From TrEMBL:
Keywords: Apoptosis, Cell adhesion, Cell junction, Cell membrane, Cytoplasm, Membrane, Transmembrane, Transmembrane helix. The lineage of its organism: Eukaryota, Metazoa, Chordata, Craniata, Vertebrata. InterPro entries: P53_induced, PMP22/EMP/MP20/Claudin. The gene is Perp_1. It holds the Pfam family PMP22_Claudin. The chain crosses the membrane at residues 12-32, 77-100, 107-131, 151-172. Belongs to the TMEM47 family. It is a multi-pass membrane protein. The keyword Cell membrane applies. Its main location: other. This is p53 apoptosis effector related to PMP-22. GO terms for cellular component: cytoplasm; desmosome; plasma membrane. It comes from the Eukaryota. GO terms for biological process: apoptotic process; cell-cell adhesion. It is found in: Cell junction, Desmosome; Cell membrane; Cytoplasm.
Length: 189
């Protein structure tokens, strides 16, 4: 990407595309019912960020309890949701930043800083949830934090990595814009 510059049409939209994938992963984490699931038979427990569902035996009716009745449930949902909203804002700002013909590199660095703030909020929610869930909710059998919880962590890791990339990209402004003279490794006689 640095070799061809950000005007190279196939490379220009890679960062907003990766942010869009992070937004999709965040939506899956927010809507998914697989934050916690029973690992072995009987499958009697399933939880999302918003509620915890249990059934007495295999094939029985699920009874669900909202986690918003707990202070830690509201805190975990609020912090993860704030991190997700900041990610959506960064996605919109990245589209604006890369759609403009003249890149504003300080603007891009600001997006990177905002991504780090989003990662902090997301990680706070992802840490509060398992710690308090395992101590406050009675669980039977062997349970595991499952696929939707994994999507939440994937979103947080993408926020951190893309934050570094957005913050470091302005350091290569001259190379990206093509303002650097080529260096030759031979000398003429």
């Amino acid at each position: 990407m640095v070799k061809y510059g950000l005007d190279y049409t196939r490379c220009r939209w890679i960062l907003p595309l990766l942010l869009g994938i992070g937004v999709i992963f965040g939506i899956i984490a927010l809507a998914g019912r697989g934050w916690l699931e029973s690992q072995t038979l009987p499958y009697v427990h399933q939880a999302s960020l918003w509620e915890s569902c249990q059934r007495p035996e295999q094939g029985g009716e699920w009874t669900c309890e909202s986690l918003m009745g707990y202070a830690w449930g509201r805190a975990a949902a609020a912090t993860y949701l704030v991190g997700f909203l900041l990610l959506v804002i960064c996605f919109a700002l990245a589209i604006i930043a890369f759609a403009i013909d003249t890149l504003r590199f300080n603007f891009i660095r600001g997006i990177g800083g905002l991504l780090f703030v989003a990662a902090v909020f997301s990680i706070m929610g992802l840490v509060i949830y398992p710690v308090k869930f395992s101590t406050e909710i009675e669980m039977t059998g062997i349970n595991m934090f499952s696929w939707a919880y994994g999507f939440g962590w994937t979103t947080a890791i993408m926020e951190i990595c893309l934050g570094f990339f957005f913050c470091c990209l302005p350091n290569y402004e001259d190379q990206i814009l093509g303002n650097v003279k080529p260096t030759y490794f031979y000398s003429s006689p």
